[in-house]
Structure formats: structure tokens, C-alpha cells
Amino acid sequence: MTVEKIMDFLANEGLSFSMKVIAAIVAWVIGRWIIGLVIGLMGTLIQKSGRIDRTLTEYLKSIISVILNIVLVLALFDIFGVQTTSFTALLAGAGLAIGTAWGGLLTHFAAGVFMQMLRPYKVGDFVSAGGVTGTVKELGLFGTTIITPDNVVTIIGNNKIFSDNILNYSTLPFRRVDCTAKVANSVNVEQAISLLKSAIPNIPNVVSSPAPDVDVLEFTPSGPVLCVRPYTHTDNYWQVYFDTNRTIIKVFGEAGFPVPETPEVHRKV
What we know:
This protein has a five-stranded antiparallel beta sheet with strand order 4-3-2-1-5. Strands 7-9-8 form a three-stranded antiparallel beta sheet, covered by helices on one side. It is of the alpha+beta class. Strand 2 and strand 3 (143-147) form a beta hairpin. The longest helix is centred in the N-terminal third of the chain and has 47 residues, at 3-49. The chain contains eight helices and ten strands.
């Protein structure tokens, strides 16, 4: 293209093209603002109704957001004179290629739909899913967002979660906390059990029913090992876990129980 043709194009079409670009930018900004407004309003109305929980609300908001953004993109094409009917036909013709390339994403989407129907967990639940343990933050179109106990945001494909075991620690009202306590062979085991059964229920957030389990778990050369198992709500699991261990140390110390000796390992010379 010669310089003269470029100048002719700018003189004849430059202003029109510039106006289209400005119109597209304005439409994009306003459109994104409207989409955000609609999504926020929809979420507020659903929450006020109280009929749909937070998990399904976030899932519906994701779907509506994707649909509205596609409509906005088609509107931008129309500003530049691109026929949306032709664009739609082009997408339909490339459907097979897109389906093959996005096959993995579609399986995650389908798994997300099934999980919305079966509801193995909801936002806020503490779960172990897809090899990750943590609190569910969001169940999206293609993946679930989980925040692990060490505060790491992890996104897992819905299909990976749906095709594996799901452990939901928040479904039941309480959870067992597993701790152990070793006593020396010289210690009266029944006395140790009795002291722990009296002290463990006094730990904050330990439920009274079922009562904590304290009993002989196994025997070792240096002394028997007791299982100490209080029950609490999932939100208080680690607090009860650490407090139980501290209580074991305090009870055994006040009772004057000796520290179990580690047996010597005899090796052949």
C-alpha cells in the first residue's frame, strides 16, 4: 500500500474508524459496569430470598457473568460492522474443533453441574477433595477454590474432585480429635486414665456428648500408649488438639508420673 492510499484511507475512513474505536471502548466500559451491577444485584436478591444457599448463588453468578460477557463481545463486533450471524455461524462450524480442544474444560463444567445437584459440600465447609484439604471458598464453573490451613489458595478441577473421594468434615455436628499419651511401665494405668477422663472434659469447646475416649491403645517396651480422643466442632479442632496435648503434660506432671524411658538398642559388634 502506497503512502497516497494510506492518506486517502485516513482522510476518508480514519474519522469513522476512530469513532468506532471510541464507541467500542465506551461500550466495553459501560457494559462491564452494567454486568457487575446486574451480578451484584442478582446476588443480593438471591441472598435476601433465603431460598438458595451461598454455593449455588456463586455458581449461578458465574454462569450469568459468562453469558453477559459473550453478549457484550458480540455487541462490540456489531459496532465494527461485523455481522454477528456470520460470527455465530463461524463458531458453529468450528464447534467440533473447539469441543475437542476444550474437552477437558467441558468435563470440569459437567462435573460442576453434577456437584451442584448432589451437593457433597458447600461454601464454608472444611473438606478434603482432589488431594487438597481446606475450607471451600468457591465452587466455580470449572474448578473449586479451596483455602488450605496454611492460607494457600488452591484451585482444583471439578472433574478431579468429582471422580475422587470427598471427605466433608463439616457435615456432622462434631469431630473426633485423636491424641496419644505414653506412660511409663511403673505408672498405674487406671489412675492415668481416670485423671485424664476428669481433666479433658474441662478443655474449652470439648463437647460433653459423646464423652472423650481415654483407654489403652497399644503396648511398647517403654510403657503403654493411651488414646485420648475428645470431640469438638470442626471450627475448634486444632484448638482442642493443642489444648489436649498441653493438658496431658500438665496432668502427668502434677501426678508426678515419670517420663517413659526409651529402650536401649542393642547392636551386634
